Amino acid sequence: MPQEVSVSYLAIKCKVYRLIDALVDGDKTEADVQESIRRWWDLLHPADRPIAQKYLLTVLERSVSALDAIGDGLPASHRCAATYGSLASGRMKAMERIAKQSRVGSMA
Question: 15: how many CB neighbours lie within 10 A of its CB?
Fold first, then answer.
């Protein structure tokens, strides 16, 4: 019997935050997180994927905004600003890659 996977906004947000926590805590590597998302995506019914994609991108977008707000709240020191600047660039590249892959995946 196939496993039923919830595609509610809350379920997807929890999935993303659990993966972020595991990465931050060192329990998972970036490759582990990517594999986990691939497995989760494969479990989704094809008819549920458009809404799951919408919610996933919304959660990721809001997470980036939260990280930006945290970074903007850091004390204005050269060391913090330089470190955060490179992180913001990396996050933006990741978001662009996710958006590009989601467009390609939705065409397949």
Answer: 19
Contacts of 87 (CB under 8 A, 6+ apart): 67, 71
CA distances 95 to 2, 67, 91, 104, Å, are: 31, 13, 6, 14
Specify the pTM.
Answer: 0.69
Domain count, the chain: 1
What DSSP letter does each residue of 88-107 carry, written as one string?
HHHHHHHHHHHHHHHHHHHH
Range of the domain at 36: 9-107
The SS3 of residue 65 is: helix
Per-residue pLDDT tens digits for 5-49? 889 999 999 999 999 999 999 999 999 999 999 999 999 999 999
